[in-house]
Amino acid sequence: MIVLFSHQKGGVGKSTVAINFAYQIQKKYKDTAILDLDSQHSAILFNQLRKGESLPTIKCVTQNDINLGEFLSHYKADKSNLLIIDSGGYDSDINRTALIKADIIITPVGISQIEIFGLQKFRKILKDASEALDIKIKTNVLLNNVDSRSKSKLKDLKEYIKEKPNYFNLLNTTLYSRADYKNSYGDGLTVKEYNKKGQAQEEIKEFTKEIYKLLNN
Ligand SMILES: Nc1ncnc2c1ncn2[C@@H]1O[C@H](COP(=O)(O)OP(=O)(O)OP(=O)(O)O)[C@@H](O)[C@H]1O
Ligand SMILES: [Mg+2]
């Protein structure tokens, strides 16, 4: 199976959520890996930090380490294998291939007018790819880094997502803005390892459950 974190907009939490999700879900799969397409290599760097602390790691590769076609097929074909792709925040051939091959696409978004503009742009990418290949590409929108005070903008964003059911499904889980994400990364820790009883790890757990259910539908 392939789960892709994708959004051409930068800084929305693709890498942060992908990494925490990977460590949360890995026990359910025989073989779990991360394909890091982020030009900042956030997942690779996280792995190096963990290795430095002698912490267990998940296999993490860049596109230069693999034969893309073979690698995607290995994970696509077998339900007991899971590949998590952290896509770069840009439109490119490899990111489009990932959009086509993924079993589930997740698009983290924050809450603001800029985020609505960002989603409009991403919808155009999904539309063009869907039409060019005559397939339906739909993403699951994850509200991330949410400040509980921005209620009115939240309503606008939800309305926009619901108006475009061909391209967007709004996930039930919301990830709020939590300091644990920033504080844990530098030590090579997941939010769960950093703060076992924190709200961030609780929300990542809920999010992982929701995606696992979708993968097994
Ligand atoms: N739920 C959250 N609460 C608090 N901070 C968050 C949350 N999600 C992400 N962040 C922070 O937002 C910043 C950007 O996150 P991240 O690097 O994961 O985004 P990205 O979409 O992968 O960006 P890029 O497109 O540049 O790769 C990071 O500093 C991260 O710690
Ligand atoms: Mg990133």
Keywords:
47% helix; 217 residues; 19% strand; seven-stranded parallel sheet; binds magnesium ion; Rossmann fold; single chain; binds adenosine-5'-triphosphate
Q: Could you describe the 3D structure shown?
A:
With 217 residues, this protein is an alpha/beta fold. It has a single domain (2-215), classed as P-loop containing nucleotide triphosphate hydrolases (Rossmann fold). It is 47% helix and 19% strand. It has 9 helices and 7 strands; from the N terminus they run βαβαβαβαβαβαβααα. The protein has helices at residues 14-25, 42-52, 68-77, 93-101, 113-133, 151-162, 179-185, 191-194, 199-215, and strands at residues 2-5, 31-36, 59-61, 81-86, 104-109, 139-146, 168-176. The protein has a 7-stranded parallel sheet, sandwiched between helices. Strand 2 (31-36), helix 2 (42-52) and strand 3 form a beta-alpha-beta unit. Helix 1 packs across helix 9. The radius of gyration is 16 Å and the shape is globular. The model has no long low-confidence stretch (mean pLDDT 95). Bound molecules: adenosine-5'-triphosphate and magnesium ion (MG).
| Helix/strand structural class | alpha/beta
User: Count of DSSP helices?
Assistant: 9
The best one-word shape is globular
Poorly predicted parts: none
Radius of gyration: 16 Å
Q: Taking strands numbered 1, 2, ... along the chain, how are they ordered across the largest sheet?
A: 3-2-4-1-5-6-7
Count of domains = 1
Note the gap between the termini: 12 Å
Proportion of β residues? 15-25%
Order of helices and strands: EHEHEHEHEHEHEHHH
**Biggest sheet record:** 7 strands, parallel
The name CATH uses for the topology is Rossmann fold
Named at the architecture level, the CATH assignment is 3-Layer(aba) Sandwich
Helix residue percentage: 40-55%
User: How many beta-strand elements?
Assistant: 7
Distinct ligands, ions and cofactors found in the model: adenosine-5'-triphosphate, magnesium ion
Which CATH C-level class is it? Alpha Beta
- Could you tell me the mean pLDDT? 95
**What is the fourth-level CATH superfamily?**
P-loop containing nucleotide triphosphate hydrolases
